[in-house]
Amino acid sequence: MTDHLKPHHDDLGFEREDLGAKPVIGFIVSLVVSGILIYYVIWGIFHFLDAYDKKHQQVRTPLVRVESNTRDVQTQVIQRFPEPRLEDNERTELNDFRYGVEEKLNSYGWVDKNAGIAHIPIEQAMQSIAQKGLPTTPQTGVMPLSPVNLARAAAASSDTSEMKPQEQPKGKKK
């Protein structure tokens, strides 16, 4: 009964056919060579297709003259492109924007000269609000007409709930 519980190990050794260094190095070398080969094949296909595209590019009308290659981007062309454009140098553009905002916040100027609306420096505006305060409630009797106010006025004038009902004739009852 105990025979089938004993482990059966007739061959107690190690595997003598391990993988050596030569096949691993061969695999790595073949992987690098095939990667380089694939790179140059793709590079060749790209240049072949690029040359094909340049050769078969659509002919423009004779009225349009192209002074240079249309694939070259020039700064004059970029400046003619409408806003918003891609940023060339984010730091200087952001600094220019912030400088303009700071200049506007700390200076006097017209918002709408015809209407007489101007802007003042923000520090002066804050001091003025601190001294005078903000308007909290509208003045009485100066409520602007709006659809809501017009509807409230119409509802108030047509409200008959507080009126006494008319007396009905005594001879007729419901």
Walk me through the structure.
The protein has 174 residues and is mainly alpha-helical. Among the domains are: 23-59; 87-131, no CATH class. It has five helices and two strands. It has helices at residues 21-55, 75-80, 90-105, 122-132, 147-157, and strands spanning 109-112, 117-119. It has a two-stranded antiparallel sheet. Strand 1 and strand 2 form a beta hairpin. It is elongated, with a radius of gyration of 44 Å. The chain starts with 20 loop residues before the first helix and ends in a 17-residue tail after the last helix.
Mind sketching the topology for me?
Elements: H1 21-55, H2 75-80, H3 90-105, E1 109-112, E2 117-119, H4 122-132, H5 147-157
Antiparallel strand pairs: 1-2
Helical proportion? 40-55%
Distance between the first and last residues' Cα: 110 Å
* Strand segment count: 2
Count of DSSP H/I helices: 5
What class do helices, strands and sheet pairing give?
mainly alpha
The side-by-side strand order for the widest beta sheet comes to 1-2
Short description:
With 174 residues, the protein is mainly alpha-helical. The protein has helices spanning 21-55, 75-80, 90-105, 122-132, 147-157, and strands at 109-112, 117-119. Among the domains are: 23-59; 87-131, no CATH class.
Descriptive terms for the model:
about 170 residues
